[in-house]
Amino acid sequence: MKHLSLALFLCLGWTAAAAQSPVVSPPAPAPGALRTVEALDVPRYMGTWYEIAKYPNWFQKKCLADTRAAYQLQAGGTVKVTNRCRKANGEFDEAVGEARQIGAATSPRLQVRFAPAWLSLLPFVWGDYWVVDLDAQYQLVAVSEPQREYLWVLSRTPTVSEPAYDALLARLKAQGFDLERLERTRQTPSL
């Protein structure tokens, strides 16, 4: 399994397998529980997202700069996730995975795996990646998981305005995220 990740890894991808399920509002979160956005339009979420910041993690240790995730809706309803980042030697590292949406067709709760397809029946190869903040224009997003051990801030562009970033950070702090752990992602001009 290549080292990169998420959903971000997204991050960050998903299925429309539940597309024919009725739209159901998520249950009210327990006190202190991580809240997600109310709904996610998966087709609108597709495309490239640039990592703006993240909690450091073991699977992105090789990533020096230019981290991004591309999501592509597949015919079977899953999402192809392609994560790339620039390593110290200037080369790109790439990991390809699969994501699926959990629940209703508008559910912001996703699962992503980068393990081989033949392992997909094993629940532990799937990671929870929840969309916890998303602007109405689908330009800036925060993705995490129930324990708040991982966090990614992603944007449709390699940079984001400081007022938009600061406003997002304030919302994340209100959700109980430790902003001291967050590190900005380097972007090189050659993108």
Give the CATH superfamily: Calycin beta-barrel core domain
Number-wise, the strands total 9
Show unreliable segments: 1-28
How large is the count of helical segments? 2
CATH architecture assignment = Beta Barrel
What is the CATH third-level topology name?
Lipocalin
Helical proportion? under 10%
Strands, helices and their partners?
Layout: H1 42-45, E1 47-54, E2 65-73, E3 79-86, E4 92-101, E5 109-113, E6 127-134, E7 140-144, E8 151-155, H2 162-174, E9 183-184
Antiparallel strand pairs: 1-2, 1-8, 1-9, 2-3, 3-4, 4-5, 5-6, 6-7, 7-8
How would you characterize this protein structure?
Residues 1-28 have low confidence and may be disordered. The chain has a single domain (42-184), classed as Lipocalin (Beta Barrel). The chain is mostly beta strands and 191 residues long. The chain has an 8-stranded antiparallel beta barrel. It contains 2 helices and 9 strands. It has helices spanning 42-45, 162-174, and strands at 47-54, 65-73, 79-86, 92-101, 109-113, 127-134, 140-144, 151-155, 183-184.
